[in-house]
Amino acid sequence: MLKLTISDANAWKRSVDAIAALIDEGTFEFEEKGMALKAMDPSQIAMVDFEMPKGAFKDYSSSAKQSMGIDFSELSRVMRRARAEDVIKMELKGNKLDVHFDGKTSRKFVLPLIDATAHPNKPKIEFDALVKISANDLKEVLADVELVSNYVVLDAAEKELVITSESESGKAEIKFPQKALMELKVKAASRAMFPLEYLKNMTRNTDVTTVVNLSIKKDAPLMLDYAIGESKITYFLAPRIENV
């Protein structure tokens, strides 16, 4: 038995979209403490790690540890039909998921489950720099550097974060002094290059209140995470080593 009730429709919609921004399919794991998902994107260079604690649900009824394979493009399409005032109810029935929207009207959608059982391990990295930045500021910077290149370099030093992109068409450089950031902690200078499109997808479901955490280490995967309501989404993105 698995029955879930969610009263914050907007937060759940954003959570689903944040997962779907990176992966096509994945498996939700249900335990006593709540729901979780770990999955790689199709290119195998990025990973999503999502956690939604039991307390984030209005009702969380699970008879045992369970898993549920989901096509996230389909779930995302269904969730776009939810209204802010709707109470969302989901129930596992055999190899299908019943999704109910209870509000002004009562609506029901049925989604088939899929076989998506891969559970990648979370990378173990001792990061040398932590940057806390407004999501809006970060998205503005990504829009700036996109004018020049499809790759972006994050360079965290003791007193500033420098974000650059460079190509034959020119160069863009944006500097954030420590006072312009919400937090900057640097144990060692950390610089790495990443594909811009992934960073845009990872941040597109943030809002004006979102604080994004960037954990950086020289030529190592980036960890980017933020809260969505009571849930947390974490992304890992492999660097591009050459030309950094």
Tell me what the structure shows.
- It contains four helices and 18 strands.
- The protein is of the alpha+beta class.
- It folds into two domains: 2-112, Box (Proliferating Cell Nuclear Antigen); 129-237, Proliferating Cell Nuclear Antigen (Box).
- The strands form three sheets. It has a nine-stranded antiparallel sheet.
- Strand 12 and strand 13 form a beta hairpin.
- Helix 1 runs antiparallel to helix 2 (72-79) and helix 3 packs antiparallel against helix 4.
- It is elongated and about 55 Å long.
- The mean pLDDT is 95.
Features:
single chain, 244 residues, alpha+beta, Proliferating Cell Nuclear Antigen, 2 domains, 4 helices
Task: Give the secondary structure arrangement, pairings included.
Layout: E1 2-6, H1 9-20, E2 25-31, E3 34-40, E4 46-53, E5 59-62, E6 66-71, H2 72-79, E7 87-93, E8 96-102, E9 106-112, E10 129-134, H3 135-145, E11 151-156, E12 160-167, E13 170-177, E14 183-186, E15 190-195, H4 196-203, E16 211-216, E17 222-228, E18 231-237
Antiparallel strand pairs: 1-5, 1-7, 2-3, 2-6, 3-4, 4-18, 7-8, 8-9, 10-14, 10-16, 11-12, 11-15, 12-13, 16-17, 17-18
Helix pairs in contact: 1-2, 3-4
Distance between the ends: 51 Å
Helix/sheet category? alpha+beta
The helix count comes to: 4
Could you give the order of strands across the largest sheet? 6-2-3-4-18-17-16-10-14
User: Could you spell the SSE succession in H and E letters?
Assistant: EHEEEEEHEEEEHEEEEEHEEE
Assigned CATH class of the largest domain? Alpha Beta
Overall structural domain count: 2
Strand content: over 45%
Q: Ranges with pLDDT <50 over ≥5 residues?
A: none
Count all strands and give the number: 18
Which percent range fits the helix content?
10-25%
CATH architecture of the largest domain: Box
User: Do you know the CATH topology of the largest domain?
Assistant: Proliferating Cell Nuclear Antigen
Q: Oligomeric form of this entry?
A: single chain
How big is the Rg? 19 Å
